[in-house]
Each structure stands twice: as structure tokens, then as C-alpha cells.
Amino acid sequence: MPFKSSTLICVVGPTAIGKTKLAIELAKAFNTEIISADSRQFFKEMTIGTAVPSTDELRAAPHHFIQNKTIFEPYSVGDFETEALQLLDNLFAKNNVVIMVGGSGLYVDAVTKGLDEFPKIPNKTREALNSELQENGLKALQQELKEEDPSYYQKVDYQNPHRVIRALEVIRTSGKPYSSFLNQEKKQRPFKTIYVGLTAARELIYDRINKRVEIMMEAGLLEEVKQLTPYKNLNALQTVGYRELFHYLGGNSSLEKAVSEIKKNTRRFAKRQNTWFKKNDSIMWFDYETTASEIISTIKSKNAL
After folding, report:
1. Which domain holds residue 240?
2. Over the chain, what HEC string results?
3. Which of 5, 172, 205, 285 is the most exposed place for a label (fewest CB within 10 A)?
4. Do 77 and 66 fall into the same domain?
5. What's the pTM?
């Protein structure tokens, strides 16, 4: 085996940077399998808008956690942590190396470091917040979060109702800022973690994002969203690429405006991804055009493999 002990290689970086391609090359090189830590790609009803790997890509290396859930089934980052760790036990029994790939920093950290502990939320608190969302809209909840926890408000995707409600559940239950529960002492894992990050100039990332959105629209994203319109209030669908087109289908914007909003909100998402990953000093960063063979050589040399 090329690695002396169980090693998880995590491929991270902003959306549309080329993580899937690199993960496949690494999986081939180490004759191993891939765990997806992209929280949007878990759901089988969401294909085009989540940039699920193509059939050819899925054939190139065994993938896990790709379209293995349904939007009708509640699925949390804690559920993913539990299932991914169980899977890793099985995969490490076959190979000392496993690849994990994804731009969802919280989901990557859940597997590699463990989740922070939060208070148990009473059902009545959750129900009250969901009722307020329906009656008063998201803006009022955003304002409450901004006032109660300005630090977390700066980091969270405050256009995502699920994220805003989650923070407010904790705040209302505990009387403390949501951010005060973050960055607790991390759990020890029975494997070594190597982080590989892909990066590029901001203008190039934004250009790749804009082109990807156009490709998604050409591939039938609008039709995909139309099929999901009856379920638009489900948590899984409160995400970029779907929200904006639901808005258009509801007669609240033009299609051109909706597509422009998808591009803008995806660029914002990429900025937040970069901010999250830049906090991790363990990540080895590579330009997105760096060859897989060069990255593999660097991994081996820096980790004495």
C-alpha cells in the first residue's frame, strides 16, 4: 500500500473549480473509492442544478453519497457524519486510502473533525420559526439573526431559510449566540486526513460559474425545477439554482433575471466556500490547472509516503 496508515484525502475548493475531475484521478491512482461531501448531490431528484458527476465520471471510479437520498427524507449533516464514518470503516478495510470530495465545508469537517455539540431543540421552537417564515417571510428572521448573532450572520448563507432557522432555534433555546457553540474541541479520528485544495483567480472562478449556469440551463434545469415546484418548500430545495427559478415560475421575475440571480448567488456561494476553507491551515493549495500527477507527487513527498 502507498500509505502506511488509513488516510483520507479530501479534495476541496469553490464550486466549478474541477474537484470531481481531480478526485477521480486520485481514486484511479490509489485504486480506491470516492465519498462525496457535496450536500446538494445527495438527492436523487436534483441532478442538473447540483452538477452531479456524469455517467462517465461515475463509471471512472466508485462513488458514494451521490443521489442516494430523496428530498422527502430529512437528512442532516449529523446523519451524514454517522453514515460516512461507518462507510469509511468498510473502505479502509480494503484500502489504506479513501478520497473525499466536496465544496460543503461543514460536511467535510463533520467527517474529519466531528460536529460541534448543540442544545436539543424543542419541537415547538422549530414549529414556531417555520410558522413565522410562512407568515412574515425570511427577511424578519434574517433581521433577528443579524441582531442576535452578528458574527454568525456574516458567515451564514442568510438566503437559505433552513440555515437561518437552524441558528435561531439554537439562539432561542439557549439564550446564547449560535456562534458560541462553534469551534469546540474536535474529536479524534482513527485515520489521517490530507487536504488538497484547488484554487484560481476570482475572475476566472466567476467566469467558470457563469458558464456552468448557462450549460445547466441548456441541459434542462428549468424543466427539472418545474417538476419539483409542488415541493418547493422542502428544505433540500432551498438552494441556489432552484430558489431563483421557483421565483420565476411563480411569476415574480423574468427568466433572464432568474438566471442572472443564479449566477450572482452562486458567485456569492463560492466566496463563502473560499472563506471557509481558507481558515484551514492544513490545506495544500494548487492552481486548478495543476496536473493530478504533480499533486500526487506533492502529497507523497510532503507526507513521507
Report:
1. 7-116+184-302
2. CCCCCCEEEEEECCCCCCHHHHHHHHHHHCCCCEEECCCCCCECCCCCCCCCCCHHHHHHCCEECCCCECCCCCCCHHHHHHHHHHHHHHHHCCCCEEEEECCCHHHHHHHHCCCCCCCCCCHHHHHHHHHHHHHHCHHHHHHHHHHHCHHHHHHCCCCCHHHHHHHHHHHHHHCCCHHHHCCCCCCCCCCEEEEEEEECCHHHHHHHHHHHHHHHHHHCHHHHHHHHHHHCCCHHHCCCCCHHHHHHHCCCCCHHHHHHHHHHHHHHHHHHHHHHHHCCCCEEEEECCCCHHHHHHHHHHHCCC
3. 5
4. yes
5. 0.83
In tens, the pLDDT along 177-233 reads 999 988 766 788 999 999 999 999 999 999 999 999 999 999 999 999 999 999 998
Q: What is the pLDDT of residue 304?
A: 46
Choosing from 163, 181, 199, the residue where a domain stops is: 181
Residue 161: CATH number of its domain: 1.10.20.140
pLDDT in tens, 25-83: 999 999 999 999 999 999 999 999 999 999 999 999 999 999 999 999 888 898 999 99
